[in-house]
Amino acid sequence: MQPRTPLVLCVLLSQVLLLTSAEDLDCTPGFQQKVFHINQPAEFIEDQSILNLTFSDCKGNDKLRYEVSSPYFKVNSDGGLVALRNITAVGKTLFVHARTPHAEDMAELVIVGGRDIQGSLQDIFKFARTSPVPRQKRSIVVSPILIPENQRQPFPRDVGKVVDSDRPERSKFRLTGKGVDQEPKGIFRINENTGSVSVTRTLDREVIAVYQLFVETTDVNGKTLEGPVPLEVIVIDQNDNRPIFREGPYIGHVMEGSPTGTTVMRMTAFDADDPATDNALLRYNIRQQTPDKPSPNMFYIDPEKGDIVTVVSPALLDRETLENPKYELIIEAQDMAGLDVGLTGTATATIMIDDKNDHSPKFTKKEFQATVEEGAVGVIVNLTVEDKDDPTTGAWRAAYTIINGNPGQSFEIHTNPQTNEGMLSVVKPLDYEISAFHTLLIKVENEDPLVPDVSYGASSTATVHITVLDVNEGPVFYPDPMMVTRRENISVGSVLLTVNATDPDSLQHQTIRYSVYKDPAGWLNINPINGTVDTTAVLDRESPFVDNSVYTALFLAIDSGNPPATGTGTLLITLEDVNDNAPFIYPTVAEVCDDAKNLSVVILGASDKDLHPNTDPFKFEIHKQAVPDKVWKISKINNTHALVSLLQNLNKANYNLPIMVTDSGKPPMTNITDLRVQVCSCRNSKVDCNAAGALHFSLPSLLLLSLFSLACL
Fold it and tell me: Which first-to-last residue range defines the signal peptide (predicted)?
């Protein structure tokens, strides 16, 4: 078998669109010379020929068009490169793109001595790094395809061709990869017979900058004969994206009086074009400053970094003398390194001139006047100050202090947060009769400390003269409350005390009259002239109007002023106990079974409304005159309880047992209460008291209740 001639797949570096057939090998479409060197002149002159380029598509150059990477140049139809205007610098490299319906190519113009703004074609697309030509021996050899973005119709258009001088019969080319059979599908395709690679639509470098494709040859059955070999399609950038500021809003702050050259903020824009080209090389400038006083150029922006700095003297950066402490700058970013043909984008930078405390607060006048009625409290005067600093900062907010004239702490001063005024208040009522005039010395400072070269002066203190107005004050009882101690049950008409009320208005000669204000039980009377209090009823310590042995009454003292003023006094009467309440027993009903083995009937308790020693120990007895002997028995348990029991079983019936209980008072008091005892029939755990007309309480229940009462004492 004869060895196969290696298949050479040559995708031209110059982007030549070859529509030639195998018979046209004597004509190579494209520029005859691909690289030119031009010395950088002092100035490119408008319409002056720079050099001639020769391009041929081997088909007569029908509809030949040229495009230059710099908008300052054009290529005439005869191939002459000329400048469109007088220009001194255009960079270090230009590209000329020629195109007909049959072929296209690109030439590189190196400007010797030009600024190194834009790299060479090889630098831009990084041929050496991304797609090195393999050195191993193989039949398919490829190089990158270069396609400008934003191409116009018609489509599809050929961008490369596989040349095979010794291809097996009926073999085919196959193209795969992202952009062919992977999303986005259908952008590229290859003629399976001729090897022509074509693009079917406009490309956008900002969407996809490089397509990684693969080329292989197959037999008629689709079986791979050779490959796949990587094919890189590089989209050439065009300046089709404006710079944009993405991080706004842009707000900067600078302290007033800052030195010239103080950095305020940095603004940077983004350009989606190729960062390796001038298409994304940005330059910054300030288009407009508002307001434009005191200087239209208060700030400067670094054209490359975007740093905004102050350029005026510290004296001009005085917030208090500025028309407006807020400046708005229209910042423009322009690509193409700031050349006129570059695209632009703008954003607004807001710069706030921040305040520092370089002005002390000053009272609007040296003396303030105020009047206040005696006995009143609250704000009596607002002290006004002026401060040129920023009202939103501690450099403006005032803090007031009373430094003299307030020994009794009767006055306080606070700052009104809205107006910055000092609100002087009376917090302890003033007395006209003690002092009719007061003089205060008040100072004002800022919350923030002053800058070193500023101090508080005499205008930061003020005097306040306060006049106290006389008011008819109500009489005052002394003492208040008034307290007396008396035994309960004293005779009606007994004198308890004589109240004493004085008029604070010592400079006015007024009389005082007295009256009862509150007397819950109606026991008291007061002489309206001399204030003598006596009783109109018996005082009872056990009354519901008495709380813990103390009775409370209120009296009024009314002066003769116009209008009259009233004072209130309190009388507390402590009532001593007298043995005037007999004790009583509980419970007063009991049950017992007629056949009970335990003859205990009930445990009795006794209580007394009086206080000790007029209460227990109590003496319990059966009133024998009314009850036959040898039936009932009562036994003392403790000072307050006794046990009633039977000496023998009784028939089913109701019995009234008179119980006599006596307290320990001197003299003692006795109470006789009938204890109703129901003797019931108890059979088979059932208690029947019906025949006896008894209440249905079992004996054990009553005993339990009695024992519980005993335990609680």
Answer: 1-22
